[in-house]
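Posted in: Protein Modeling Q&A

I'm a second-year student putting together a small comparison for a lab meeting, and my supervisor asked me to include a predicted structure for LuxR family two component transcriptional regulator. I've never done this before, so apologies if this is the wrong subforum. The sequence is pasted below exactly as I got it from our records. If anyone can share the structure token output, I'd also love a short note on what stands out.
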Amino acid sequence: MTRVDAPPVPTLLVEPNTLLREGLKRILSETPYSLCASGANLDEVWRTWPPNADPFLLIIDAVSDHEAKCEQIARIKSELPNARAVMLVDQYDLKRLLAAFKAGADAYLIKTVSCEVLVKSLDLVMLGETVFPSAVLGLLREHGDEEDEASFEHTEEDPESAPRGLSVRETVILRCLMEGDSNKLIARKFDITEATVKVHVKAILRKIRAKNRTQAAIWAASHLPSNGRGMAR
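Accepted answer (user: helix_wrangler)
Welcome! Here is the predicted structure, written out as tokens:
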């Protein structure tokens, strides 16, 4: 199911539903994720396993009190940068998802994922990757469809609309990434070569510190203005 030769990973589990908590414990027992403590809330878990500076994995239910859970993760990440946090939810909501990643969550998973997907996701998180389901792309596209987009020509004339650090052209291309456009489609939209698009995308990823196009799209959804003017706060 996962890397059998991997070293044990200290793991904390926060799940208020006793049945689900026991099920997750059984799943983790067959993996390198060594459960150090589990409980219905984070305070209960901390009492059992006081955190330290060593890397550890936190799996936390975020169905209820989502905002409070995000605040807890942000505080943990600030004090313990080696911590990894995986949030479990019962449905996807773009605003909540963005809040989770802003807080420092490393993965955002729905509770209906298979055991194999869960464990593979944990593996990716411990390798330093950010994990979220493919359904998120659909949410991003819906979000983009609801926006009142400014045309490319108008945006070119309005450099004030560009986020700090990005050129106007990069800002426009970033919005295209948020909408799921391919390099080929972006090139066709703005009458430039695909090679030029790739150069812009590479620069965008570097400037916003995103690892890939999907992370860039999530960043864009929370940072680009919906009407093409001014930064969203």
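A couple of things worth pointing out for your meeting: The mean pLDDT is 81. The longest strand covers residues 33-39.
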